[in-house]
Design a protein that fits this description.
Elements lengths: L2 H7 L2 H22 L3 H22 L2 H43 L13 H31 L11 H4 L9 H8 L1 H32 L7 H8 L1 H4 L2 H15 L5 H24 L5 H8 L4 H30 L2 H6 L7 H11 L4 H30 L6
């Protein structure tokens, strides 16, 4: 279909107004960074709208998109030198693609033809809302990552960093983390506590999930609510309760006290993931094993465990992340001898502002992303084993 014929189906007021709305959103961020949000919104709405109308009416798509890319890149360079050029090129590529995507009617290509205008609007609005939430959640993390390579002892971007000068970047904070005794002791404590807490969480959580999956167990809902309550109750309340309880029985300030506290926080994650895995489990397999003479222990390890193993490992990874990143409970239950990595980070923020914290935070983010990736791969494998998704 020709561009002209398609344009007849897409009125200018539609794609120009939508482009203006997207430009206003982008202008809000740019204006806020320059200290004038309202001006940024107005310019962000007006400039893309004018460009969209002019480019679609007077130029073919490819030359227009290259021109928009160059225009936005030049504007970004004038505003903020090299970083502005980089951001401007990103915006130029997006708006060049976006306005022609609307103008040529491609936004309806993957949708059923019977959808109304309101349904099409909600289809894309829902995705924009989810994307905005994702951006607001992920932006603080993205800010921390480059700051951890700051050559200066600052928590802000230096002029050298903004100019992409190699002299503004350094691995000194990572070097400090690897050579500083306080940080290494904290890392050692975390590596001693988290695996043991994970082992207890997986053991008790798996047994609890299997038990609660049996139909003859009374008060299943009440027991489940009690077991997953550490996820629901505010952490400060759980920490205070553990402090008073452990003080009475002599576990406060001990290694085992911290391990048990972290295990209690990790058990709900194991119960939920293993219970979800057991939903598709065929109980006739265990009955068949029992009919062939297998005892319950053999049946569990030879029949049940291989099928629910992805859920068990997923729950264990969540329990490990919970223990490795937890700081509130260890402040109440632990002592100076159990100072973990998050505790050391908290102390560094409160007593001495050290950019090494940013390097440690970056390492924790990378570890968390790697573990969550493994969890997702295990989830997909579990679904394939249970026949819930194609192999």
């Amino acid at each position: 279909m020709s561009t002209f014929a398609t344009a007849q189906r897409t009125p200018a007021r539609f794609y120009v107004s939508v482009t203006a709305a997207a430009g206003a959103l982008a202008g809000m961020f740019i204006g806020t960074s320059q200290g004038n949000t309202l001006l940024g919104i107005l310019i962000g709405a007006a400039v893309p709208a004018i460009i969209a109308f002019a480019a679609t009416k007077m130029l073919p798509e490819r030359p227009a998109r290259w021109g928009i890319l160059a225009l936005f890149g030049a504007a970004g360079f004038l505003i903020s030198a090299l970083p502005g050029l980089f951001v401007g090129l990103i915006f130029g590529w997006f708006f060049g693609w976006f306005m022609f995507w609307l103008f040529e009617g491609h936004y309806r290509a993957s949708l059923p033809p019977y959808l109304t205008g309101g349904q099409v609007l909600w289809h894309y609005a829902f995705r924009v809302i989810c994307g905005a939430i994702f951006v607001f959640l992920i932006t603080p993390i993205l800010v921390v990552l480059p700051l951890s390579f700051n050559a200066q002892d600052f928590f802000t971007f230096t002029p050298e960093m903004l100019a992409f000068d190699p002299a503004g970047y350094s691995l000194k904070h990572y070097r400090d983390f690897l050579t500083n005794d306080a940080w290494q002791d904290a890392l050692r404590n975390s590596l001693l506590i988290a695996p043991m807490a994970t082992l207890l969480s997986v053991s008790f959580g798996t047994l609890a999930a299997i038990g609660l999956s049996q139909p003859h167990v009374p008060f299943q809902r009440a027991i489940m609510a009690i077991l997953i309550s550490p996820m629901i109750v505010p952490l400060i309340i759980s920490a205070a309760g553990m402090y008073f309880f452990y003080s009475r029985i002599g576990l406060q300030g001990t290694y085992m006290g911290v391990v048990l506290a972290h295990a209690a926080l990790g058990i709900p994650f194991v119960i939920i993931t293993v219970t979800a895995t057991l939903v598709g489990f065929d109980n006739s397999l265990t009955r068949a094993a029992a009919n062939m003479g297998a005892n319950p222990v053999t049946t569990f390890f030879r029949v049940q465990m291989p099928l629910i193993l992805p859920g068990v490992i997923s729950g264990g990874l969540f329990a490990f992340i919970t223990s490795f990143d937890e700081v509130v409970v260890v402040l109440f239950v632990g002592s100076a001898g159990q100072k973990t990595l998050p505790w050391q980070m908290f102390t560094g923020l409160r007593e001495q502002i050290s950019p090494t914290i940013l390097a440690v935070a970056t390492i924790l983010v990378v570890i968390s992303i790697a573990l969550l990736t493994v969890v997702e791969l295990l989830r997909r494998r579990s679904e394939r084993l249970r026949g819930m998704s194609p192999g």
